[in-house]
Amino acid sequence: MSRSEGPLSEGPFALPVPYAITRRPDGLFIEWDTEGHAWLYPARPLRLACRCASCTDEMSGRPLLDPAQVPSSIAPDSVALVGGYGLRVRWSDGHDTGIYTFERLRAACGCERCRPASSSGPLVQQPDR
Ligand SMILES: [Zn+2]
Ligand SMILES: [Zn+2]
Fold first, then answer.
1. Domain boundaries, the chain
2. Are 96 and 41 in contact (CB under 8 A)?
3. pTM score of the predicted model
4. Which CATH class is domain 20-107?
5. Centre of ligand 2 from the C-alpha of residue 42, in Å
6. How far is the CA of 29 from the centre of ligand 2 (A)?
7. How far apart are the CA of 3 and the centre of ligand 2, in A?
8. Who wins on pLDDT, 11 or 31?
9. What average pLDDT score do residues 5-15 get?
10. Proximal ligand: closest to the CA of 88
């Protein structure tokens, strides 16, 4: 058996890669394919989810970012691809050290396909005993 190394080697674990990324004042609109699989990632929650060293403590994993420091008008100023596996977003507050991997973005997709039908929505959960 030969070992394949490197993130770009083809394998059984195909990384999700967006078909199109549209920067909008209210967030990032990512299309995962050409058949309508798309989701708008709202700007502020995305900014708050930054996992860079200054927003998240590397040792404990605790968030260091105070949500009160992030204005509600936060918007992505620019978006750049990183190594074919993620995105680097420059925010209107000047923060640009966070990288959002496609894997993570895909996992956070809130479309009906990824979050199967629940008429009550993700914020309303009723324990069923
Ligand atoms: Zn950050
Ligand atoms: Zn989805």
1. 20-107
2. no
3. 0.77
4. alpha beta
5. 14
6. 12
7. 32
8. 31
9. 57
10. 1
